[in-house]
Fold these 3 entries.
Entry 1:
Amino acid sequence: MSDDRGLPDLATAAARGDRAAVDALHRRFDPGLRRLFLARTAGRDEAADDLCQRAWTACWRALALGKYDPARAAFSTYLYAIASRVWLEHLRRTGRQEPSSALTEYEADQLGTDPAADARLAEVLSMVRECLRGDAGGLSEDDRLILREVGDGASDRDLAKRLGVAPSTVNARKRQALERLRRHLASRGVRGENPDQQESFGQ
Amino acid sequence: MDDQRLQRLIRMAMEAESLDGTVRANRDAPPGPISIVVWRRRLSWIGGGLAAAACLGVAAVVFRTPAPTGPGGFGRDAPIAIADPAVADEGARGDSSPSQGPDESPTYTTQVAAHHAEPEEAVVFAVFRGVDGSCECVQVDAPEWSGAKRLADVDRHELVRVAFRDPCSAFAPEVLVIGVSGKPGTVGSSRRHAEALAERLGRETFRGRDVSSAAYAALPDLPAGSLVVAEKISIGP
């Protein structure tokens, strides 16, 4: 059965325990989540299925416990935060080195194991997303382009070629953009090495 | 928070964004061929407007510069069949090679294997197929396998990883990953080969034959000693 409600409405309803909304979110996000895990596991269907199942189970539990606040993070970001934890737990459990990814590189001790930690990470990621969209942080278009390229793994040399400037110039602009992002996060209470260790979060 | 951690957060935020993008595609994508234009950082060449017959729309063919793949770490978990060229030719026609049903993935079949002592060149084509099986885009990579392995020794996960490293479509529910190797200078990585794969595999249902056979048959003028391996990855629910 299709549910034509928009994502924000569905997320709000799901946070209130609306089962139909939860089902609709599952239908819409499951392919993307599976794609994410397939990429992480280099196409291992069974592992991806298992990880999806774990992520959704954790998500449903968190929704049931009222741990998700749609005002603080989009559902996609919250689900991604859960997926991050599930992936790290998988790495811990299997003890294997998976293909390089942000999830892998994000050290295991960065994340807690409880739903509250997922919510905190989702909130930090929401702030970063706002900055990348230009909705917060006062980052220029160039800053955002550079940060996205950096997030995509571009080297200074790649960026220099694309922007038509010297690598040293790119490096300086990259540092400037990162500093702006850092300052914005700090102004929102994210100062520590670990996003879970935010101060005055949401104030 | 140091720069490295900030960069990881950015990457994670971008990955979270991609989840939203997938949802939009799931809801908004019209049935049938999807026209897309791809622009990626690592592109050395991009060709839009490729009118491959099977795509019936605009397909993007993406060529990438070589990039090292990550460490392997997985064992082969799918059957391997090595055939001599004669058998492979039969397999290419779909009448004798090991085959699986259309929904039995993954398939991993070696079609031709020879000249292992000689240097080889490899190219990986990834055909991203839409909900109706039509081709969304074809991506061409020239990977450098970890440990300087030969294609025949590359496990399926390392092969598939090439396609997913920076996919030309975020929305395709199915990806055909085709590795081709042969003597240096003989392996097709040209637009013509990409077009041929898009055309022949764009609407292939794989009923009665496996992906490798179809890919082998689709690639024109492969010289003797070439190796074709293929994987079909389903991503949809």
Note: The mean pLDDT of chain A is 80.
Entry 2:
Amino acid sequence: MIALRNVVKSLGKGSQRRDLLEEANFVFSEERMGLAVGTGEEAELVLDLLCGIQKPEFGTIWRDGRPSWPIGRVGHYRADLTGKATLHFLASIYQFDFRKCEDLLFGLVDIGKYYNKAMIEWPRNLILEFSYATALMPNFEIYMVEGSMNTVNESFNEDFDAMFEHRIRGKQLIYYSTSERFLMKYVHKTACLLDGHFYLFEEVADALTAIALSKSYIEQTLPTDKPKPERDDIIDM
Amino acid sequence: MVRANFYSYLVDKVRALPVPSASARGALYRSLLKGLEAFVERNRNNAEIEDASGLVSQLSDAMELIEREFDKAIFTDGKRMPDWVKTTEPRTPEDALADLENMPEPALPPEADTHLGFPALMKELTDGDRIVRSLPVDLSILRDGPPPPTPVEMLAILSTRARVCGAILRRYIHTSAGTEKLGYVWTLLEPIIQITIVVGMYWILGYPIIFGMPAIPFTIIGISAWLMMRMIMFRLGHGLGREAVLCAIPVVRPLDIMIAKAIFYGLMYTAVMLLALQVTELFNTNKFEIQNLPLFMGYWFIFWIFSIGFGLCYAKFIHSYPWIERISLFMLRAVYFLSGALFVSEQLPTGIREWILWIPTVHGIQLMRSAFFWEYESTDASPTYFLVGTMLVLTFGIMCERTLYRDGVHA
């Protein structure tokens, strides 16, 4: 469960800054919930807030379990470190058995000679497979997913899907994707961020429709200049 | 007396702010007051508006009224700002006073089907013929807020933080050394060279004794402490660098990375200082005996804490005022000569000594030397001043770090 109480968070800098969450109150209580957010940038910030990478400017967010990192992101893998060093680091901070996880990794990913090489030399798809495989290792209570959870390697996808399905049994899953197909694969009810607040929709399609309608609404109404203040009664300084 | 409707003017100004945060409002108020004071000053001799000085107090009253409204919104209504900020309706001081007087009734006892203070928002959108409607959400859990952590949970949090710092430290040691085994030697060689250069200058100049203490160990202690502080300050001040990517893992906090870096440089300079002292003991004709090694290491540890606090403050300063970064290298060279690394205050004339003793590092380094050498007992350095100074700098540093964390500044 993730609860948000009076949460305020803004996005952008300087004059481009705008409120993404405006005193938002919401409870992510369903076991499997989708997340529908207008743009990728907004979704990234919302996921950062939900898993605790960023703090809200105002209000409180609390979780009743350990959240995962947004699965599907590869930004935290440092290019000059080897796969072994990265796995060792994750094993240290999440206290999982390094040897067992190494076996799991070798079983799932055809990593071969790359394991002891710096990740900068790895093919892009291998980094993605490695990132998905490492997400199976720590015992999270809340899993956050960003993107499609799919690679070009079909056999990896099948194995990973089966293991991930087993891993999230009895745990909470919050899944952000813009694709209805991927969302429907894992979730039914979907939280939708509209005008700074979260709303819960029964169906994935309804949430995505709401987002689309909201976008078109914004496109129709922008740009909106704020009315200039009346200055007749103000002394000229 | 001239009267102006400052309240409505301020309301419009606050509405026009991109984000009406406390700091933005403060900046707005300051600029308005400055402008008004300049206006009053310009028209001091103008007979028509000779009583314009009252305007400043009117503007202050309007500001106070708006701040009272913000306080009410935050502390009574649990909101970030009053509702009028997001509307365009005209507003008068009378409206504000009426709102402040009509404080809401205390909350009723919770009922099963209400969300006390948290309206269950519903949305209904029309997509052609289809109506898309959101579901109600049970927000009753928000009423009580998060449960306070139990002592066991607090211990678990501390243990997690220690584990994460340890893991980052191990990783940082490997990445600092690079891919080659020789990298570890280079990591230590750099501070050794830095210390050798300064100590070598004393040796060349031929100063065997400084204020009764052997010159070379005297210098090693001062220079090592100073270099440790400088290095920690720069490493913490210039953000997380390449380690910033780790912040994408929820269990890793920016402060963990900073502490790990500070431990790394603390250990490195401690090792180099002890090594340099050992080498001096072996090859120098001026033999020395350590008076109280545990006390010396205790002061060294407090000095390390002081360096962390200073580094955290420095990070905030150069983020808020980037020009500080440009002058900091030059400033540090000046501060280096005043830091106590190269002298003890007892060597200085009384007039200068009074000023120098305001600097906490002078106390720290003198206390270290006092604990280290039999030949020297500091009469100026105060352990209380050094400890209190360290605690104040650390507290302020942590506050600075929190503000950067809240703003999402990692790199």
Note: Residues 1 and 51 of chain B are 6 Å apart (CA to CA).
Entry 3:
Amino acid sequence: MMNRFLFGTKLWVVLHVAAIAFFFWLGHFIQFK
Amino acid sequence: MTQRIYVKSTLLLGLFTVCLSGLFFHLRFHSVADNPSNFVPAIAGILSLLVVPILFYMKRTLSYGYVLNGMLAIIGAITMVHFSISHLSPEYTLKTLFFKTLFSDILILGGVFFTGKALFDLDTFGYSAEIERKGRFLRYPGYGWWALHLTVISTVYALGNHFWR
């Protein structure tokens, strides 16, 4: 069985929600103009 | 010293030197005082130099090192593409796209990503020449999994940049 790294765990869900929020904020935070 | 430790140390040294050069490049061209956005490469550079090698070194945290290293490369690629688009030359030729954007700098991140991939794969799947490659393309830790994450993260970043100003 291949290691799928946290897939199916609560931490996987938490990381994905946090990552979506973080990258959405990052898009807002980084302004070059 | 075993061959495994020797190869792993060489790859870690390669990763460390590329990340150090990246951090110095950023510090040379722009200070964090000029624009708050410049904190991002500074923090990413410090994470790449201090945290990623430790995570890669220990077998228990190898996967975390692999994911963090790849995510930092993705953040670098997305933000540098963003910078290139916002400073795009009015004339669109292949020459301006290759030489008047951060295209070459983004390619350096390829070195960071692929060195991390080699570190992970060698430790996870072994060092023998006879081992057959297994695993699905779109599933962790394959290239498809990274392509999927690059696409989704780019989209979320673009939405944040466009809708939240």
Note: DSSP finds one helix and no strands in chain A.
